[in-house]
Amino acid sequence: MKRMLVAVAMLCCLSLPVFAGEVTKLPVEIKPDNKDIVYIGRFSDDYRFDWTGSAIRFKFKGTAANAELKLVRGGAAGLQIIVDGEATKVIIASKDQELYNLAEGLEDKEHVIEIFKRTEGYLGMFKFNGLQLSKGAKLLPEKLGEKKIMVIGDSITCGYGNEAPDVNQGNTPQNENGYMSYAPIAARELGAEVSMVCCSGRGMYRNRDKDEVKDKNGILPIIFEQTLFNDGKMKWDHKKYVPQVVVINLGTNDGENYKGGKSELKKEDFLGAYKTFIKRLKELYPDVKIIASIGPMRVAPIDGWLKELAAEDESVFQLTYPGKGAAEYRGGHWHPSVKMDKVMAKLLADKIKEVCDWK
């Protein structure tokens, strides 16, 4: 069985080849419920996933690997493939394909491959149906690392348009690279796992296009409880991933005066919602450290409010990502470019090292 593979290499500052060709079925089939496959982020019981940063990682001895992935919602979505710690190819998946080559022509030895969803939930949902490995290949045990962080945010955290060539370009499956968002970059520097819960346009108290929280289904603290971005009924089991540190970067959309139709954000409303969410996080993760961050698209007055919040709670720490004016720091619709994501990642990694005493 052969299907056409369409892949586009879009990683900023990396000269990756463009992948196109046919995918040949491999003989060793691995079911998705195999205990040696590691799932990072949120997956349903039938292995659907849509949040940015949802990842599938496995170790095997062999020379090639395919993934059976069905795009069950959306017209196109992006995946970053990582082989032995190196970003190799970007797959832009479509509904007319269900078999994707991850790697081929490898040395016949142990390898670790990760499939990382680089686009956010509204751009598509996948269903993972298993792996195919080369003849004689064997799946090997793999597990989650001990260091775990969770990053909760909006489009900035998702990597919205961070590979767009200019500020006038919107977000697409080709230019949104969640793998090169500041959060995963920081996690890689720390040698930590990262779970991302983020969505464009969302806020802590109100969203980008909502003056008041009349429909609470849309704000981040509500969708945080969901297994899937696009399914409000399926609740996530928070025991499946317990982070030592939670990073929050919300407030940009709360403070946005969308088309001049929103009232000024009130400190008491924003901090009230923030404190309620922090209480929920502590219920779920009693020993967690929380980094309340803001920026780089919007900073004042929220940075000052968060400093007050941190002063009142010894488990909360404040971080500001300062804006950069030069064009190379700006991606689509004035969001951070990959270059700015790297600046933010360094600030975040340093803060987490300080807060958690990680080396």
Which terms summarize this structure?
about 30% strand, alpha+beta, 20 strands, 2 domains, Jelly Rolls, Rossmann fold, about 350 residues, about 20% helix, five-stranded antiparallel beta sheet, disordered N terminus
What's the SSE blueprint?
Blueprint: E1 2-6, E2 20-24, E3 28-30, E4 38-40, E5 48-49, E6 55-62, E7 65-73, E8 76-83, E9 86-94, E10 99-103, E11 109-117, E12 125-133, E13 138-140, E14 148-153, H1 155-158, H2 182-190, E15 193-198, H3 220-223, E16 226-228, E17 231-235, E18 245-249, H4 267-284, E19 289-294, H5 302-312, E20 316-320, H6 338-356
Helix pairs in contact: 2-6
What does this structure look like?
This protein has helices spanning 155-158, 182-190, 220-223, 267-284, 302-312, 338-356, and strands spanning 2-6, 20-24, 28-30, 38-40, 48-49, 55-62, 65-73, 76-83, 86-94, 99-103, 109-117, 125-133, 138-140, 148-153, 193-198, 226-228, 231-235, 245-249, 289-294, 316-320. The chain is an alpha+beta fold and 359 residues long. The chain is built from 6 helices and 20 strands. Helix content is 18%, strand content 32%. Mean pLDDT is 92; it is low at 1-20. Strands 4, 6, 8, 9, 11 and 13 form a 6-stranded antiparallel β-sheet that branches. The chain folds into 2 domains: 2-140, Jelly Rolls, CATH 2.60.120; 148-356, SGNH hydrolase (Rossmann fold), CATH 3.40.50.1110. The chain is globular, with a radius of gyration of 20 Å. The longest helix has 19 residues, at 338-356.
Query: How many structural domains are formed by the residues?
Result: 2
Q: Which CATH-level-2 architecture of the largest domain?
A: 3-Layer(aba) Sandwich
Subunit organisation of the chains: single chain
End-to-end distance, in Å?
A: 48 Å
Rg over CA atoms: 20 Å
Q: How many separate helices?
A: 6
Which structural class matches the secondary elements?
alpha+beta
Helix amount, in percent? 10-25%
Strand content: 25-35%
Q: Round the mean pLDDT to the nearest integer and report it.
A: 92
CATH fold annotation of the largest domain: Rossmann fold
Which geometry do the CA atoms define?
globular
Please provide the count of β strands. Answer: 20
Annotated CATH homologous superfamily of the largest domain: SGNH hydrolase
* Element-level helix/strand string: EEEEEEEEEEEEEEHHEHEEEHEHEH
Which CATH class of the largest domain is shown? Alpha Beta
Q: Indicate the low-confidence ranges by residue numbers.
A: 1-20
The major pleated sheet works out as: 6 strands, antiparallel
